[in-house]
Structure formats: C-alpha cells, structure tokens
C-alpha cells in the first residue's frame, strides 16, 4: 500500500464552506413564497379541503395500516409471550 502525505493539503477555512440552502437569501425567499402560497391556497379552497376530509382520513388510515404492518410481520403471528427469532 502506498502512504499518502496529507500534510501539504490546506485545511478548509470558513470561507470555503458553503452555507445551507435555507440560510441563504434565495432559500429564505422561496420558503416565504411557499408559505404565503400555501396559506392562500388553504383559505381560497377550504370548502374543497373540508369536503375531501373524510376521504383523506380514510386514505391516511389505510396507508398507515398498510405500511406499519411490515415491522412485525403482518396480521397474526403474535406469539403467546415466547420470544422466537
């Protein structure tokens, strides 16, 4: 194996680091725009949202039931207190 000399590489300074996108002015502007747009959509279309609430509730319950069962093996299969692996 070859040895790599790391002493010649300069350590990264704070100037070379990139800021996270949400901390930039562009990221902040996009977040504000999306928040205002979301609030306007909710207020303007609340009748449609309230009308779809029962259907959305059933879809969420069904989705949770479907995805949450993969952790313990599905229906049944619960042992009577024995720890089988």
Automatic annotation (TrEMBL):
Assigned keywords, A-Z: Membrane, Transmembrane, Transmembrane helix
Transmembrane in keyword set: yes
Annotated spans, Disordered: 1-20
Membrane-crossing segments per the record: 21-43, 49-68
Top-level taxonomic group: Bacteria
The keyword Membrane is annotated on this UniProt entry: yes
Amino acid composition bias (Polar residues), ranges on this chain: 1-10
Protein's name according to its UniProt entry: DUF2933 family protein
Organism: Pseudorhizobium halotolerans
Source species taxonomy: Bacteria, Pseudomonadati, Pseudomonadota, Alphaproteobacteria, Hyphomicrobiales
